[in-house]
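User: Structure tokens for this complex, please. No commentary.
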Amino acid sequence: MKKSYSKILCMLIAALLVVSFAACGSSGGNSGSKSGGHVAELRIGTTTANDTFNILSQGGIFGRINYIGFVHGNWVYIDENRQVQPYFMTSFNISDDGKVLDFTFPTTALWGDGEPVTGNDVMFTFDFLKNTAKSNYLIHLEKWELTGEGSARLTFSEPDAYQFLLRGAMTVGCIPEHIWKEMVGNPDYGSWTDERAAIGCGPYKLVSKDVDAGVSVYEAIPQNNYAGEITVDKVTIKTYADQTAVLMALQNNEIDCYYAYSSPIDATLIDMVASDPNIDIGESYYAGQNQITFGMTRPAFSDYNMRNAVLKCFDWDLLANVQGGKYGEVPTSNLLAPPCLGFVNTYPKFKQDTAEAEKILNEAGYVDKDGDGFREFPDGSPLDILVVPQYSKDMNLRNRIAEVMMDNLKAIGIKTHIDPEMIANSEIWESNILDGNYDIAIGYTTSGMALGTSTAFRYYVYEPQPGTSRESSWLWGTCQDPEFNSEVWNMIASSSEEEFVSHIKRLQEIFSEQLIGASLGWTKSFFPYRTDAIQGWDNFPSWGVINNKTWTTLKAK
Amino acid sequence: MRKKKKKNLPVIVGSVIIGIFIVIAIFCEQLAPYDPAITSINVYQRPDSAHLLGTNDLGQDIFSELIYGTRVSMLIGVFAAVIATLVGTTFALLSAYYGGIVDRLITSLTSLAMAVPGLALTTLLVCYLNPGKLSLIVAISITSWTGTARILRSRLLTLMEEPFIKIEKAIGQKDSVIMFKHLAPNIKDIILSRGAMSVSGAMMTEASLSFLGLGEFGEKSWGSILHYAFFRNGVIRGLYWWYLPPIICTSLAVLGFMLVGYYGQQNK
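Assistant:
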């Protein structure tokens, strides 16, 4: 009898262990969702720090995910076709002169602390953004007023309404007066660490965070359904040490997708998950790019022949490979990447032709006069090109690009050098770039900038926006061509999409004719996601599957 | 009959390893099949007859990089070790000879320097100084003299009690003469052993700093080869021909200097 009790006890323990292991085995998966219904929990993996929780800060993954109206109820959003779409502003209308913006907003929305969003909050927000935050988008805002229950009007002294929607869409939105009135007039509002600083009127509210573990958890506010019914009930964001760790987590079903602003998964890593049948690599053309800017205020690159020869000597296939691996593509001469609005696809692709490059230099008088193996200026003075990779925390890629360029330039007899201090010290780099102390600067345009109104052309202008000074404009460019400069500023100030496109088309023509610089390669972006438990993913080019539509289109499988 | 001297095998092996690396470092231009800075579209090529250790992400020949890297690693390792040994020896001589407040000051300084994590301080110094080989040598030297100073001081304190030193002092010999003509030669074996071991330490530190991306732009050192292999996710992508050779070279060179330093000292 005693023996059989022992047997039964052993069997019970064994059964318990089996159940426990089974439970452990499924704990990584997305559970609790009904087929075709809401997603109980969306698990997002990132490499951005989970450490800043302030709706007026762009720091950390909280700030970065608020670009897509997450906890922060952004006014509008830009869709995958770069069209302005209603969000917190449920409808909007711009007057013919571009100076008046009438809009409506929901009267049922709630703040994350349960308080209702009111017209006073909307008015307070514009007051705060203009007078405390000194928002660039609202410099010409003259008047902000309520025109009824759930409707308001902004009046600008200049035709800035379209630009406000287009440029401000990602970074501004409504803020709660009952919380932020404490910070009126305080320039340090962006670094306010009060728990209430994380309260917004977006579709989600922060419910818990563990900064040490790099995890933050959010729950939906069903009333804040600006883009439709919210179908994702809960979102968990986990920060991983690097992209390799993120991909492993994705393979192990610890997360459902990857999101990081302007940091797609590296092309050399994506093959790790490409063969997994439950993972879509989330491939799309990337709007961001590395580019070179010629120092046109210095003797060498003020000469078109030098610019032309240099662009012909580069090994474009290798440059594309260095940046985008096997997915990299040689770019065309019009600077922009294919996803940019107004991109014209008829310009020629760059091609390496060292013989032609040498011929151009010889005919222009850049020959080796002192027999040291390197060319001199036509007047015999020494030619030594300063290459300046843009300073950043991670210099590896741009240093690698610089190595390729310097080797290519050496092959056609052009001596080059790098200033070690410029690649080791951000202040030295910046002061030199602002002063135009470079021959070839290797820079980077983020996807957000490329898809916005500034585009990569902003990095090439020398003249400041009319009415402003160069010192206060943070200009890196050295192109002094008056038409190019005015076209850039006119493009940025466009009051409609048609106007924007006409300017950007002309800019591509000028850029390609004058060879002011060049894109260094078109790459693909990868924002991988799992397809086994969730459906309805919408992969925005350059942005990934975590976008403004995510919260309303995802469904459980 | 003369007693046959027993061979010190570890020292011989160590010397052979060091010798090979010195020859490679001196004749790297002649030994390398390619200029390691030359790039090509043949990226991530596996080892073959054209590229014995394959190519990297820029199509550069890894074997040539490794050969040129020997010169950089040896140069930094040896120079940093020479400076660290000179500084350590000088402090030890001053401390043991003068004693009193000088000894207390130098001993305190040594203890303080030893308490600070070496690699962390070196990293900080490299970041602060202008990038380049000289900065690496200075930063490594500043943090690696302490062990030598402490060991030599204890040996010198014993020597100071020897009659020949007391006689020299009694006849009024100059301090510098006693220190550098009579004391230093009596500790030369320890100095050389410590010097050899310092080279291995300095090479490891150089490799670590270059691996962290704190080396000079475009410089081919073993650490920088490894740095870019990791930047391109070489391990996870199975690019063993890229990340293994610098690891093996660094390990071998360190082993060579350690064998000479450790067993050379033990035999004496």
